[in-house]
Amino acid sequence: MTDETRKRIKEVFTEHSGYARTQDIRYSGIHHKYLQQLVDEGSIIKLKHGLYSLAEMDNYTVLKEALLTVPDGIICMGTALSFYELTTWNPPETHIAIERGRKVVLPEYPPIKLYHISENILALGRTEVKAESGEMIDIYDRERVVCDTVRFRNRIGMDIMKEVLKEYMISKQKDLNTLNSYAQQLRIETVLNHYLDVLL
């Protein structure tokens, strides 16, 4: 691959906020075979069939881009767990919570997975983190995402749930009173305590 080809591919990604589809590359007159070479080099990441992102995109940029697509959404589940370093699982989509019944038309990229949450518990644990740019990003706090991991354990897998609970319990930033309060409100207190007893 020539330096000129590499530069043109990078420009395509830049034009699309750090993402590109195979067809975007082809439309630019570049053979898509170079994408696999860049994946192998670690310059880009394959998110799913036909969709790639730049490897050096920072977390805040990815989160902000996704939230612009889903106004009033809240970063949740796998994305929040990865942000807090409670799991080695790093889903290719940005996980966003929205109110149940709300209709959102999602673009091809950035890739987003929606979690529809009841209105009465949507705001529970909602907090903000400050990006390096100074912008604020809505995200669930640690205790809420831990509870949601238990709630959605059958969807994300028991191994991930166990990993999250173990990492949370050894974390210095845990707040067990808040965790217990959330568990009561989400009606998973018995289930949560069962798994904590088994793991600990």
The portion of residues assigned to helices is 40-55%
Task: Tell how many strands the DSSP assignment holds.
Answer: 8
Query: Gap between N and C termini, in Å?
Result: 53 Å
Structural class: alpha+beta
In the predicted model, the low-confidence regions spanning at least 5 consecutive residues are none
Q: Which band does the percent of strand residues land in?
A: 15-25%
Mind summarizing the main beta sheet?
A: 3 strands, antiparallel
What would you note in describing this structure?
- With 200 residues, the chain is α+β, with helices and mostly antiparallel strands.
- The chain has two domains: 52 residues; 141 residues, no CATH class.
- The chain is built from eleven helices and eight strands.
- The strands form three sheets. It has a three-stranded antiparallel sheet. The protein has a three-stranded mixed sheet with strand order 4-5-6.
- α7 runs antiparallel to α9 and α7 packs across α10.
- The chain starts with a helix and ends with a helix.
- The mean pLDDT is 86.
